Amino acid sequence: MNFAVVEDSRSQAEVLKALLKSEGHQVEIFAEGKPCIEALKTRSFDFFVIDWNLPDIGGDEVLKQIREHCGWDVPVLFCTGRTDEEAAADILRLGADDYVPKPIRYMEFLARVQSLLRRRKPRPATLQFGNIEIDLEGRRIRLCGLDVELTQREFELAVILLRNVGRVLSREELLTSVWSREAGVDTRTVDTHASRLRKKLGLAGESGLMLSSVYGQGYRLDTVQPA
């Protein structure tokens, strides 16, 4: 699952990220609400964890934008220092699925995340990005309506890149997500597979997407005008 954590306390955000990654999830941190809202235009998230009080805008505004862009099937969990009944009612009334009070009890936090994931409705089995269509159930990818032959690892890498358009993904993050802890695999494997995907899926701009290597960081997929 791809999580967005909107939390201005860096230390708190890093703890939540570590907890979620220990459960096998991907996590992107936003220190303010507006960058998260902007990311909704190009990236796909499966779950949101939001601090009620943010430096730039209120958590309620972030929630409103999430519901407008992502619908009501994506779980939203709030973290808040307000524990009174009125605050809890406000949070849930505005469209949040649940909340945890601060200071966060981490075992309870994970339990609430797992509970919401169990209740989560299935997301669409087909995703469209530019001229690329992904059949998640059939594990197939089509470019301009034609099937593209990919290995299992190429498919998994493509899905992660396509679900994170505009975001720099480090080689280490990609390696962990796709190859887990396979022996004898290093970051050069990521480079090899990225190069293959660039050719097979037209990620040099032909498909409406450009896969770029970001020096010293990793890879970023961006939308462009088809070549």
Give a written overview of the molecule:
It is a single chain. It contains eight helices and twelve strands. The mean pLDDT is 87. With 227 residues, it is an alpha/beta fold. The chain has two domains: 2-119, Rossmann fold; 126-223, Winged helix-like DNA-binding domain superfamily/Winged helix DNA-binding domain (Arc Repressor Mutant, subunit A, Orthogonal Bundle).
- CATH architectural grouping of the largest domain: 3-Layer(aba) Sandwich
Proportion in β-strands: 15-25%
Q: Give the CATH class of the largest domain.
A: Alpha Beta
> Helix count, per DSSP?
8
Mean pLDDT: 87
The main β sheet shows up as: 5 strands, parallel
Overall 3D form? globular
Low-confidence spans: pLDDT under 50, at least 5 residues?
none
**How many domains in all?**
2
